[in-house]
């Protein structure tokens, strides 16, 4: 005896999370929370990079001939400002704010570009930050679950 695939008249059916009825990737759903944590941590690291650059010009390697050469103090301010904003957006993602996903993608992209330009100064640190930003962009763009569900489940 087979069960009917349609619900009985008058019975409610749960809404599909995405158009087309396919559930979102569990990797992306869990990745969104992890992306919020990573943005928060990436922001803290950006603040530390910024403070180090502002405090002393001798902390980072001096570059002689580079297209994107700014003073280390200028890079320090760029990383400090981006870091503070990333902390706020990471916190917003963890709280389930709807604005935070779009802002997270935009700011992770800006941070990725800034760290690509920062690459000659600290290559390993910049590559790690670029990898974090790529994951954050992927997680925030592929998750289709409701952002308010993340806040309720936490």
What do these coordinates show?
The chain is 66% helix and 0% strand. The chain has 5 helices and no strands. With 154 residues, the protein is mainly α. Residues 13-21 have low confidence and may be disordered. The radius of gyration is 21 Å and the shape is elongated.
List the helices and strands and how they pair.
Elements: H1 26-55, H2 72-95, H3 98-117, H4 123-142, H5 147-153
Helix pairs in contact: 1-2, 1-4, 2-3, 3-4
Concise synopsis of the structure shown:
This protein is an all-alpha fold and 154 residues long.
User: What is the residue-mean pLDDT, rounded to a whole number?
Assistant: 78
Alpha-carbon distance between the two ends:
41 Å
Stretches where pLDDT falls below 50 for ≥5 residues? 13-21
Count of strand segments: 0
Broad structural category:
mainly alpha
Strand content: under 5%
Which oligomeric state applies? Answer: single chain
Supply the number of helical segments.
5
Radius of gyration: 21 Å
Largest sheet: none
Task: Tell me, briefly, the overall form.
Answer: elongated
How helical, in percent, are the residues?
55-70%
**Would you list the SSEs in sequence order as H and E?**
HHHHH
